[in-house]
Amino acid sequence: MTLLELRDVAVTYRSATGDVPAVRGVSLALAEGEALGVAGESGSGKSTLAMSLLRLLPRDALVSGEILLDGEDVLTMSWGRLRAVRWASASLVFQGAQHALNPVRRIGEQIAEPLRVHGMATGAAARRRTAELLEQVGLPAWRARGYPHELSGGQRQRVMIAMALACSPRLIVADEPTTALDVMIQAQVLSLIRSLIAEHGIGLIMISHDLSVLAATCDRLAVMYAGRVVESGPSREVFRDARHPYGRALAGAFPTVGDPASRMAPSGLGGDPPDPAHLPTGCSFHPRCPVSLVSCASEPVELWPVSRTGADRTETGRAGASHTAACVHVRVPEETR
Ligand code: ADP
């Protein structure tokens, strides 16, 4: 069953110097218990999208489209309903969240806070639930009596995950949850997130600039560029066989013309992601694209189903395709160009 559905979501920041269209028409769906990774370079609109899911954007952000959580549009909910939904139905673990813990309050009190606010448990029941949550994230229950400064960065991030789990939400949005951690700890925290969502059937939207991290953690991937999803599909397919040149570069596997064996990192593309206030015409990626055609500078592109082989480039193949990419090379098969 669909847990979350985004329909044509757009976010524009209004500023004195002009509008910044940070997210431009994103449509995505997440099934119950599914993990979706959203990848892209800095500035591609990932955090804006993540914050929009729980209506946590600043006031100058204009949001349109629909964000249906269990069929209910988050964008039109009353503030009272939204408060009930946050933590209880959907919670957020954000980048550097480990620094958000209050240094002068005991860890147990902080984990129990969402339980108290949502009237789910107080007193001894809250203490029991806190101990259980600490154990779930791999920390001993006695840590509840301690303070954040007694924990390492990785342990503090585990506490934030415990808080996110406290009210048994059906959706967790994790924005770069491990970016501030060193590689070993990052792997441990990722495997913890993966096992917790699988065990509790929680839907996960995980944001990262690192496609390989997402591919190892998530069932499906969506690659964002300049506020749009430019490729999406099953993780293995997108990571190993990305069809959008940007997706391929993020996967570190873009063969350059004349040297099919060479591999390019996204930085190897040259140039920077575009300023959303001054987007290139046509395909936003065309100025950096190693395989762009003349038409890419003027013709807009849409997500197009990726066919696995030449033989299944048919209407039937399209209807069933779950791997999509917004690139003229996908839309128009080579032999017909
Ligand atoms: P990412 O998470 O992929 O790094 P963001 O969602 O943070 O991307 O940013 C997308 C674009 O929106 C960037 O160009 C950024 O400068 C712009 N932006 C983010 N927050 C604001 C804001 N409060 N006001 C104006 N522009 C913003």
Commentary on this structure:
There is one protein chain. Helix content is 30%, strand content 23%. Mean pLDDT is 88; it is low at 253-265 and 310-321. The protein folds into two domains: 2-89 and 170-257, P-loop containing nucleotide triphosphate hydrolases (Rossmann fold), CATH 3.40.50; 100-168, no CATH class. With 337 residues, the chain is of the alpha/beta class. The radius of gyration is 21 Å and the shape is globular. The protein has helices spanning 46-53, 79-85, 107-117, 123-136, 153-165, 183-200, 211-217, 235-240, 245-250, 315-320, 328-331, and strands spanning 2-15, 18-31, 35-39, 61-69, 72-73, 90-93, 171-175, 203-208, 220-225, 228-234, 304-305, 324-325. The strands form two sheets. It has an eight-stranded mixed sheet, sandwiched between helices. A four-stranded antiparallel sheet has the order 2-1-4-5, with helices on one face. The protein starts with a strand and ends in a 6-residue tail after the last helix. Bound molecules: adenosine-5'-diphosphate.
